[in-house]
Sequence to fold (470 residues):
Amino acid sequence: MHPFDQINNYLNSTIAEKQVLILGMGIEGKSTYRFLRELFPRQVFTLADCRNDLADDPELQHPANIIRQGPAYLEDLDSYDVIIKSPGIRQGLLPPNLEPEKLTSQTSLFLEVFRDRTIGVTGTKGKSTTASMVNHLLASAGNHTLLIGNIGLPPFDILHLMRRDTLIVFELSAHQLEGLKVSPHISILLNIYQEHLDHFADYQAYKTAKFNITRWQQPLDFLIYHHKDPEIRSMLGEMAPLSKQVSFSLIDEPGVHSFISGKDVFFRNLDLFERICKLEGLKFPAGDHNLLNTLAALIACRIAGVERIQLCHDIKTFESLEHRLEFVGKYGEINFYNDSIATIPEAVIYAIKTIGDVDTIMLGGYDRGIDYNLLTAYLGKAGLNNIFLTGKAGKRIMAELQESYPGIKNLRWFNNFDEMVANAITSTAKGQSCLLSPAAASYDQFKNFEHRGKRFKELVGKHFSLNENR
Fold:
């Protein structure tokens, strides 16, 4: 059966002729609405969002639509048979007595039909890079693949592109995993750190959401996970998923299935022990985190049937993604790096270690209340000449550094991002590196981390373009 017919049949059994609420009308909510309206042109759908201008949206004009907008958009949820929740709607906003079987999501509806052909990727950091790498390796080997999810493409938007042989690579955020009752056939769990505490009730709720990527797997499924991550190992001990567990680590030790020795990647699985490839001639920074991402991607593709010789060739053609330790360029004898995606301490520390000659780092932004003790302990001893900060998160990092290291003199706080970047450009020593790696979200001054990263690159380019023309 063609994939479109599969999803059509499933939605006819779960959605047709029922009272349906689409909760949250952002990118994914609108995607859900467009596809359901295509399948069910006459069915009544209720569309709900906190926005007060929802009824004015031309895309949502239809005689069978009921619009609920503004502060009352969450009222009377019990009156619906099916509630399709968008990832951005916090679970804590819903009534505690809401029947859980009424609640679903686009992610859940998609996986209910296509889990067997899906490789799911999650982790606090590295999931976009790893998902893109898996997709690159699978596609380069001749597979028809589609990369969807948190990377920016809702699953329903690609249903018309699917073929009978399509493999799905699904980047899954904690928001998309929250409340999920189905898991992909192959799941990758990279790491778990404190993040998104503004969305989840607490850190435990965040970890629980992440583990839904493996919680519902079956004995013939696979979980690929980082052996050294303490949070993952702790949760695995508590939950004991049914799937086959395949671990990876930078070093060989008991319990590890895939590791690196020298530059060679080895894979030990049941009676099989093989050298997959040699990691040389790579087009991306080969720091520890990227090597771990690479191990996970190689294992997933090997399990999916890609030959070793193919992987050896294609890993050398994969390039880093924008805003993820991206080398912007060398200007005025200074190397500039854009790591705007780095919103947690661990990512910042990794970036500094990977680059190796950081003279100036730019930190701060929207404060989501995460613990900065690890970062301040590292920065206090890192010997960087310039630690520039902005935003409420920057103020808190600065205060914690000054408290822990009273004599520290390399700190400067700026009122806005542009001012911070301008001073970073002129303060960084020639022959050294200037790094944007904020350890904070971007929402105080930007739409998202992409917007922040693009602005950084614009400011760097503009500065040197103007100076060259003088």
Q: What stands out?
A: The chain is about 35% helix and 20% strand.
